[in-house]
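protien #1 (seq + structre)
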Amino acid sequence: MSATKPILNMAAYAIIIVLILMLGLAVLKARSAANDNTEIIDAAAQMAQDNKTALDGIDNTIDGRIDLTAKVLGAKITSLQTQTLRMQQQLAELEKKLNDSQSASSDLKWVVNPVTRHRYSVIPYPLPWHYAREYAEKNGGHLVVIGDEVENEWVVSTFGGDTEYWMGLTDEAEEGKWVAVNGETQEYFNWAKPEPDNYRKYQHYAIINSKAPHLGQTEPGKWNDVPCNEVRIGIIEQTVQTMPAYTRTRILP
């Protein structure tokens, strides 16, 4: 019995030592896991902080852009108000000129076309299309309506090919359907290529002698469609009322 007891004691010690080692390993693993979790938590906290910093930066950027946009919009509104005031003043001046157009009609210099027997004159100052149309009507005519190539060439040779003139042709009622202001059916056209293109969807009024070098439009007598609010000189066309032929009455004896 005395020999067995030391063996048992040694076995017990060995078991205790193994248990202690296993416990130590477990503690080490637990500590390692805790350290890993701590690192994960620290990394998550750092990421959250970084995200907060980024969001704060975005907020500051947005606030700055909002302030800048507000300033830009304010400046544009002020500019538009100034332009509106200027346009109102210009319109008032144009209306005054139109009201005085009857007295100015004596200043118009008329030229008779030997083919059409109509007479033509240029408006003495540039106007938007509708104002030019009204001026022509107040002076007993209408904006020029060109019916064929011969008349087109005569207008260019008489009034020059370097100035863009308003014509009495519009498709404001229906896009692509060009109507003459005097009610005649318009069958002749002399558009410059690639006109009429209705650029930006509001070009509904015709001019002659289109000048657009970037599009190759330099040839005199070619037509173009443009917006009505641009100011140009218009050509007035007026029908000449011919007197009936004099008939001599023969008196019989």
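ok now protien #2
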Amino acid sequence: MNRVGHLFDGSADWQQRVTVSHILDRLPRDRYGSFVATIAGDATQELLGLGAPVEVLPAPCGLSLLAAPSISRFAARKRIHLMHAWGVPAATAAGALPGIPLIVHLFDPLTAHRHAKYLRTLTRPSGFAIACSCETVRRRLVEGGVPMEVTVVIRPGVDFALINRIQRSNLREQLGVTARARLIIFSEPVSRAGGQFEAVLAAAVGSQLTGDTRVVLPGQTRERRRIERFVDALLAKDTTIVPAGRIPYEHLVAVADVLLITPRGDTSTTSIAWAMAAGTAVVGTAVYSVAELIAHRVNGLLYKQVRGQSMAASINGLLKDSAAQEKTVEVARGQAYDVFGLRRFIDQIARLYLNVLGGQPPQEGIVDSSIEQ
């Protein structure tokens, strides 16, 4: 049996949680043993939905490199054969362990761009791979000097059965959304770079004109709280929904009508995969990472940013075009079945594990599911 250690850090988010939960649930347990740990105690809140115990490993002074001794003891105690790091700090700590193969999993092109030169220093001739959730992540790594041969694109898997269950539930009713209202959700995490502030403003203004639009602000970030205060000050509080408790982001996407993804630059695209699968219309900025998945008026609606100009008019124009949204939804759902199938994802993860453990090239036997179509 191959024993895999999943190592998290303070960057743990919903897409890491969902992805690891798929791996824990669906990898054959007679061939793989999985163990979860984090070097950041606050990450345990995000990881509650894993359904597996999460061991907190001390990182003195909050420095990831100083966590190497505790990770080494964890690996020895669990007899780990392979470390799967879910974040750059986790990779930093795990990379200091000699003799244990390492996989780094990245979702965010911006993270790949900022840390490419450092990740290049972790590269080994064998027993190392960087799994990229989209081609843009891989491109940013290679531009930063990471050898292409250690990278592999594995598209995220989407749980269609979960989406169906959530859509049959009363979650929209719990959120206070009527059957006639349109529910708009934004990408998570909410941040300055994500552009959600102007997107919320545009949607709130549109709602005041039509009265049939609600927007849901996910997550617990400082920027989300700033936007919430701003909306309250505009007397548009009834437009905005801030979910009580910890409703998983993937549940919110499943019951939304529109995913509005408005980054100022490249961004993670896992939310787009879930929206496509759920029949949630995608409206977004035509940055490289978004345009990698979405073609304008084919499987979503895109607009180009113009420096110095507000996005509000463009956003409102696309949000009003409900007929175009309906046409794109069916195309997007069909593509999602082919590209983001959960069985394909698990098969590719299992193959990557075998490649890295066996010293083979990470890409051996793995083809980007979007290319096969």
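DSSP finds 17 helices and 13 strands in the chain.
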